[in-house]
């Protein structure tokens, strides 16, 4: 930094909160904080206010899901060594596809379920599930009907992705916190069904079914262990 910049920073440290906010608003008139402001020709503050007005609606819930995906990419994927993000474009049953020298791994990212801005417990979704576990909703955002079979296309099928990553922000308060499990370990919608049950219980801490380490989840998947996560 040059001498003038140092002087400005020194003066800012002496400014009151009101003075800093005034200076910030003045600079915001000419400085964009994200490219989306240019694409939409609207200030970021207006975009955020539009989302906030729907805090109890679908837009806000969808935005939180998008944030979970972005957080996974930034906080987890970009910190992995010897892995390449090769996620293709398109409407896919997984959010990310990564590759190392062994092979590929597909990941579906979901946000821990909450109700009235509080973490939802597993027994609130399915009565027979434990009250000490959290819950995640695992189904596609968009629904539809298979024209050949007449079946609902919203539920995921086993084999459509390898690892489920659950963003634990509702309970931890941090977007960098995730719990992982192997998709084949998830509870089926019925005995012998190839569909994944809509609600899955999630452990708040690492155990034999869930881990907070993405590398551990990959190891579990590649070891091809056959089991089903506990719901009690």
Protein described:
With 232 residues, this protein is an alpha+beta fold. It has helices at residues 3-14, 17-28, 35-40, 44-52, 58-75, 122-125, 169-172, 214-222; strands at 84-85, 96-99, 104-111, 114-115, 118-119, 134-137, 163-167, 178-182, 199-202. The strands form three sheets. Strands 1-2-3-7-8 form a five-stranded mixed β-sheet. A hairpin with a 2-residue loop joins β4 and β5. The mean pLDDT is 92.
Number of separate helices:
8
Strand order across the biggest sheet?
Answer: 1-2-3-7-8
Rounded Rg: 22 Å
How much helical structure, as a percent, in the residues?
A: 25-40%
Shape: elongated
Mean pLDDT figure: 92
Strand content: 15-25%
Largest sheet: 5 strands, mixed
Number of strands: 9
Helices and strands, in N-to-C order? HHHHHEEEEEHEEHEEH
Class per helix and strand makeup:
alpha+beta
Gap between N and C termini: 58 Å
The unreliable regions are none
């Amino acid at each position: 930094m040059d001498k003038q910049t140092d002087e400005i920073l020194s003066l800012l440290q002496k400014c009151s909160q009101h003075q800093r906010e005034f200076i910030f608003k003045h600079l915001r008139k000419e400085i964009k904080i994200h490219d989306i402001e240019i694409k939409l020709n609207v200030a970021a503050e207006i975009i955020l206010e539009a989302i906030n007005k729907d805090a109890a609606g679908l837009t806000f819930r969808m935005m939180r899901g998008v944030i979970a995906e972005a957080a996974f990419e930034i906080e987890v994927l970009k910190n992995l060594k010897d892995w390449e993000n090769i996620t293709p474009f398109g409407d896919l049953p997984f959010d990310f596809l990564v590759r190392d020298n062994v092979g590929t791994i597909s990941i579906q990212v979901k946000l821990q379920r909450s109700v009235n801005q509080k973490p939802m417990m597993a027994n609130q979704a399915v009565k027979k599930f434990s009250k000490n576990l959290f819950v995640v909703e695992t189904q596609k955002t968009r629904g539809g009907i298979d024209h050949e079979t007449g079946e609902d296309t919203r539920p995921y099928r086993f084999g459509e992705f390898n690892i489920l990553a659950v963003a634990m922000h509702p309970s931890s308060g941090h977007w960098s916190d995730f719990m992982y499990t192997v998709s084949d370990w998830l509870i089926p919608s019925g005995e012998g069904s190839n569909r994944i049950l809509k609600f899955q219980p999630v452990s708040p801490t690492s155990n034999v079914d869930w881990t907070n380490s993405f590398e551990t989840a990959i190891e579990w998947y590649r070891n091809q262990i056959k089991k089903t996560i506990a719901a009690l």
